[in-house]
Write a structure and sequence with these properties.
It is built from 14 helices and 13 strands. It is an alpha/beta fold and 365 residues long. The chain has two domains: 204 residues, P-loop containing nucleotide triphosphate hydrolases (Rossmann fold, 3-Layer(aba) Sandwich), CATH 3.40.50.300; 153 residues, 3-Layer(aba) Sandwich (Rossmann fold). The strands form two sheets. The protein has a seven-stranded parallel sheet with strand order 3-4-2-5-6-1-7, sandwiched between helices. Helix 12 links the parallel strand 10 and strand 11. The longest helix is centred in the C-terminal third of the chain and has 16 residues. The two termini are 28 Å apart. It binds adenosine monophosphate (AMP). Adenosine monophosphate binds next to helix 3.
Amino acid sequence: MDFSFSQLSLPLQRALRDMGFEKPTPIQKEAIPLALKGYDLLGQAATGTGKTAAFGIPIVEGSDKGEGTTALIMTPTRELALQVKEQLYLLSKYKGLKVYSFYGGTSVQRDLELLWKTTPNVVVGTPGRMKDLMMRGLFNFDNLRYFVLDEADRMLDMGFIEDIEWIISQLPKNRQNLFFSATIDEKVEELAKRHLRKDYKFVKVITEELKPKIEERLIRLSSSGQKLSELEKILKDHLLEKVIVFVKTKKDAKDIAEELKRRGFNVVSLHGDMTQRQRENSLRLFREGKVRIVVATDVASRGLDIKGVSLVVNYHIPEDPEVYIHRIGRTGRIGNYGKAYSLVSPEDTKALWRIKKLKEQNAKA
Ligand code: AMP
């Protein structure tokens, strides 16, 4: 059976047209018809494949604004919560669903006031804040029919499992579960088996078309002291492109961004010492193209879908090879062409070998 958007209700078709979505991506083709039939799903899909709409479309199709809260979507990071909320809001524009996000780093008081005044139809949240608000009895999940766990692998990596288990224990049993994860290892599988219904469906789509096309280049330097001037050269060679520069520590992010500013570049940083508001502000400037260079640490940039990034620079080579794969995945989204340059000094050799090994394993899988 071939799924197309024309099989959806008119309000959704209109919204999709407004969003410029003409045809479903492969993961949407697989996941949406199964989810509409009511199956639980375990979807293997990374950010950039269209996974948000893969669970968002069935939720919007199956929810009405008079029904109270019908869907809870959990994401590991605040930025992802914001992105998911934004997309669900756009999808449900013509159904008028109320979509709200709740995450740490913002005022609990504001959440309290909001929930006093209104009942969201779709709740998007990160584990800590959601648990906090749920313990205060601020949600009514009696009509909840959809539970989404987005980026399940990251949730586990980031140590959210206990909060997630607690949250799930508070939900009505008769609900549809949609779990998505970029990687499926034993831990994710175990989590899925514990919570998905027995007849759940596994969907995985990796097509050539969707594989990011990324040109990876190693720039070998005889000492780490040469990195800054090499970076400057690269940035001058890519004057019109959006660039993310990944560095190791918060201090590096601050220092390197400052130094680049001194050298005349328009740049912002993204790191864990910034408040939520500062980070959102940096991201907004970058998204809107007002600033084209971001100097970021890994944690601060997890899960972000930043459009049109054509170059990722690894100023420091990450110790963990998975981090390298995630970083370069920021470019070359949905079939676009991207570049990933790594500045390699002699002390990076070991880390480089670990990356090579992981890439070989992934190629075989
Ligand atoms: P996601 O994997 O959900 O983070 O989505 C990645 C990007 O693809 C987002 O910017 C979406 O707006 C976009 N997108 C999702 N589905 C489609 C589609 N069917 N057609 C065009 N763009 C899409």
